[in-house]
Amino acid sequence: MSLCYTNRMPFSIYTAISYTCWIILFSIWIISALGSKKTVKRTDLGRSFLSTILITIGFTLIFDYHLSSVFAIPLLPHSVAIGRFGMALTILSCIFAIAARYTLGRNWAGAVTTLKEHHELAQTGPYRIVRHPIYTGFLFGAIGTALTIGTVASACGVTLLLIAFLTRIPTEEHLMMTQFPNTYPAYRKGTKMLIPFVW
Q1: Residue 115: which H helix or E strand, with range?
Q2: Tens of pLDDT along 103-153?
Q3: What is the count of structural domains for the chain?
Q4: What's this model's pTM, rounded to 2 decimal places?
């Protein structure tokens, strides 16, 4: 495996490619956010703020595993097999999240859980597989990137992201149940939350 060494941990080409995928994803997020519909309802700003903080810390731990000598300790061996698998998982997950973002279109809420003007319930594309495909893509992309890094910091980052998503999802589900009382219950019953066909 091709490695370039920093002062503490090896930085692999698989991590570099994974980071590039995230840069592309976040660039698309920023650009596409400009076309979102007008917000007509916001819910639980405290919970949204908490989850946003957790997401920020989580990604910081994944993108900067030199935060401390304690967090930078290796958790997994640096191997070609793990690196390639993590990189592939990151690539596929980022593509999945981007596809979900474009399926959601102008109904996308951003950092705060909101209801948009003339909000539409997405049930096509990745939304046919899971109810929260953007979170699915982010979570599995983070897992993939963490595998290429293999440190305690990256594992903690993934954990914080999962906690953040599980904090935010109930609020979003309640909003959808309120807005689409005739269609969302059936959609929720027939479609898994985060992991296709499992959970």
Answers
A1: strand 114-116
A2: 987 766 655 555 545 567 889 999 999 999 999 999 999 999 999 999 888
A3: 1
A4: 0.87
